[in-house]
Amino acid sequence: MRAIGLVKPCEVAGGIVYVDSMLGWLSRWLRMIGVATVYRDDFNDDELIGLNELVITRDKGLFNRRHGNTLLLLTDDHIHWLAASSIVLNVKPHIGDDSLCPLCGGRLIKVNSGSAIGEVPINVIKRNPVLYRCESCGRYYWVGSHHRGIGHILAVANELISKCIIEHNGSECLISVNE
Ligand SMILES: [Zn+2]
Question: How far apart are CA 157 and CA 35, in angstroms?
């Protein structure tokens, strides 16, 4: 058994999530699986302490000082971060129509790849009749060479989730993985 996260309280409502500095990887993955995520690499504790939204952090001091919903990640394993966060948010890691731009959190809309000529490589346009364009930052995404790697991480995260055990302890819950 390996403890991967400590959350308070045990029941967390959905909504916007704040991800503490140094957890940029997690913020990109949460957006990809459709979670509205606010991330900056220069948050300070005072900004995060009073928020009513869920805050995800590696900082035990911040966890102890907060009264609102907080998830403390207990490992440095990135996929464990994704698994623990998904459990708390009650989302199944997946890529779908609700996926958000990993870099800015904007909504992705399907566009005809012909409209992206000059903005993405021509071989991408030839291979993909449909691309996804971020409404906010304008970046384009497509099902390409990275997709197999993304699918692997999602599969590992989902398997981890199926092996997780949640123990209630007062107003906190400890998330452990049985591996
Ligand atoms: Zn974007």
Answer: 15
